Amino acid sequence: MYRRIRELREDSDLLQKDLAEYLCCSQVCYSRYELGLRDVPTEVLIKLAKYYDISIDYILGITDKKRTYK
């Protein structure tokens, strides 16, 4: 999961501070999500899935398909 949120951010040419601002947390907090030093709360997973328009299953590594559920 942690690798995926980093890859999504990098593929979108975003900085950690950009996502941290969107998630209303500090850059340090977001960095800890990416490094796996802090568990990603459910509400953050939901926000990330909506932001990238992908399924939470993709973020969690359950599937390799980025599709959303309509």
**Number of H/I helices:** 5
CATH superfamily: lambda repressor-like DNA-binding domains
Task: Determine and state the CATH class.
Answer: Mainly Alpha
**What is the helical fraction, as a range of percent?**
55-70%
Order of H and E elements: HHHHH
User: What's the count of strands?
Assistant: 0
Q: Whole-number average pLDDT?
A: 93
CATH fold-level name = 434 Repressor (Amino-terminal Domain)
CATH architecture: Orthogonal Bundle
Secondary-structure class: mainly alpha
Rg: 11 Å
Quick recap of the structure?
This protein is mainly alpha-helical and 70 residues long.
What would you note in describing this structure?
The protein is mostly helical and 70 residues long. The chain has one domain (2-60): 434 Repressor (Amino-terminal Domain) (Orthogonal Bundle), CATH 1.10.260. Helices cover 61% and strands 0% of the residues. It is built from five helices and no strands. The protein has helices at residues 2-11, 16-23, 27-35, 42-52, 56-60. It is globular, with a radius of gyration of 11 Å.
